[in-house]
Amino acid sequence: MIYVVIAFLWVSICLYVITGGADFGAGIIELFSKKSYRNQTKKIMSKSIAPIWEANHMWLIIAVVILFVGFPTIYTTVSTYLHIPLVLMLIGIIARGTAFTFRNYDAVEDNWQKIYTQIFYYSSLLTPFFLGIIAAATISGSIDTEAKDFLSLYIFSWLNPFGVCVGFFTVSLCAYLASLFSLHEARFSDALPIMKKKARETAIYVVVTGVLVFVSAHYSDIPLLKWIFSKALGIIAITLATISLLFTNEAIKKGHFLLVRIYGGFQIIMILVAATYQHNPNIILFANGGHLSLFDESAAPKTIEALGWALLLGSIFILPFLFYLLMSFGNQSRKDPE
Amino acid sequence: MDDFLAARSQMAMSLGFHIIFSCVGMVMPFLMAFSHYKYLTTKDEVYKGLTKAWSKGVAILFATGAVSGTMLSFELGLLWPKFMEHAGPIFGMPFSLEGTAFFIEAIAIGFFLYGWEKFNKWFHWFCGVVVGVSGLASGILVVAANAWMNSPAGFDYIDGKYLNIDPIKAMFNEAWFPQAFHMTVAAFAATGFAVAGIHALMVLKKQNVNFHTKAFRISAGFAIIGALLAPISGDVAAKSVAERQPIKLAAMEAHFETEKGASFVIGGIPDEENEQIKYAIKVPKVLSFLAWGDFDAEVKGLKDFPKDHWPPVAVVHYAFQIMIFFGSVMMLIGFIYLIATFWKKEWLTKSWYLKMFVAAIPFGYIALEAGWTVTEVGRQPWIIYGIMKTIDAVTPMPGIQYSFYFFTLIFISLSLIIIFLLLRQLKMVAKLYDPTDPNYNPKNKK
């Protein structure tokens, strides 16, 4: 059962990065769009994410619940030593979620919309940045539980060049995903060439920030290269991610936009495989060389058993509905090519 | 402000706001589905407009409830890591089920909001009902976790270790049913009164009278059901507290001396130093009856417990008095409503009748917050009743007061924005939602 629980944890993090990431990316893309076609971008973006956005953030809640029920020590370690970036990320999530709703559901359209829009943009940028920083902090060995002063305990546990680079990398990934996903919605609109250009630009950002991650890891003595390339699965995952980048480009040229979405999602999964597999099952690495492992820190067997069943039953309920939701609104946009 | 106090204040404030958002989220979908049902059976377009207007309210509050809920799932660990480390695996079961319920709610909202004219009309209606049912289910499940803190179960506590953990037993703890029942009923009363009052105000202002009268009738109906059931569920809850947490009951009533045939204390100023209550009205023997169903039963007083196990008596006592007061007022309004509906139909359109509902807009929420204060502050100094003290659970990180100030700011601005948005929805009723209005033109939002 512990494997079921870990699988759910991993899948929900994956889905959060993909759907939530595309969601954040939509805001980032809009923020960096030129004013002249911002409105058009906004329409396309909100059309592609509005019906499912409420579901997106549920993946994060599920991951958090799995952590605190199944792996309480890991949850409390993260929330104690990474308190500050977590709060910053939360602020991003709150501001963004509410601003998005208000943008969509406000009865009157006037200048107030501009304020929500600004909040929406900047929180879309902030949230994935801190998400990246948090993820980096768990494996970079920067959490020092034996430190005595406030700065080393609660600030330098996450604030370092490697974390910042991973933050930028996450932001670029989100923007890249969003631009890939939006191509399908944009295919009948005259904004299509612009969106295609965006997809190419963001792909470059992903590669550049990805290189930065490796460079900063090297200077911070984090053996990232060794981790990834010392195991077969790591090498395969990175290779597949790179190859599918080429396939994506091909599919964009040919106009197979649904394929583009699948390739995009696949790339993210491969990157996450590479990032998480190499030190599996150790999920947190400390400054003193110690670590927290998913197996050693799991809760009592009865709890894991119950949690596993709850997740399995839950997914039997949820998945068909979610699928139907995506299907019905997918078909909808096909029928109605504005 | 010291870190412990700041952490407690931040948690109290976050829950205090979340409780409002989530209660609206639990009840509003039922109002919406009821109006939708009326539309489907009567074909009256006004009901359709009303359904759409309410569904926007549901969407706005659901989204806010979702973010404040996400925040709470993190705050539990950010503020109380020691508590979560031990409690997480024991009381986590309802949270994992709640995840499912909440997910279904989110999906059903997606179907409902974007599904007009797209699905079979009864399927579409059913989606609205699912929103309500799953919202209610998540509320009830979350209360199970809180009930566990009041009535810990499903583990053995031996030498500071939590052994033989059984999350299912923990979920079905003794306090769950009474707390969940009372909470649900209170949510209906609070939301019903708030919504009914707002529409009554619009009727009084003579704006879209037909539309708002229909809205008022539906929401008042729900409010009254809640108001009349609240004393019953409250009685169940009180009896359960008397059995499980006698010290909490004693604090609620500022009842210092253990006595047989204890009297029910109304009002008064509790004096913890001298262990007595001043200026209170005492109704003989009623407390014994309410707690045990027997006028001569013995009710334990605070003096029977060590003083360092006392909750803040004054806070609990005042909160309890406030809850009882507003609960009774709402019950009274409930009776007036029944008389008006069945015997004195002419009252229904009288302005004093509508004004009464306008005045009652905040009553339900005041009672709800007061009741929540009773149960949470009444549990202190424990975070897990009798097992772990709240002060031992707090995070080691210093500087929590800044986090508290910051979150206060966020919550206040969030609430102001929601009020602002709902007012704007209300202003646009003529244009967007009431098809009988000459200005009706839903396409033009400017």
TrEMBL record, chain A:
PANTHER family, per the entry: CYTOCHROME BD2 SUBUNIT II
Residues passing through the membrane, by range: 6-32, 53-75, 81-99, 119-143, 155-181, 202-219, 225-246, 258-277, 306-326
Superkingdom per UniProt: Bacteria
Keyword Cell membrane: yes
Keywords of this entry: Cell membrane, Membrane, Transmembrane, Transmembrane helix
InterPro entries: Cyt-d_oxidase_su2
Cellular location(s): Cell membrane
Single GO cellular component term: plasma membrane
Membrane-protein topology: Multi-pass membrane protein
Cleavable signal peptide: none
Family the UniProt entry places it in: Belongs to the cytochrome ubiquinol oxidase subunit 2 family.
GO annotation (BP), single: aerobic electron transport chain
GO molecular function, one term: electron transfer activity
Protein name stated in the entry: Cytochrome bd-I ubiquinol oxidase subunit 2 apoprotein
A Pfam family per the record: Cyt_bd_oxida_II
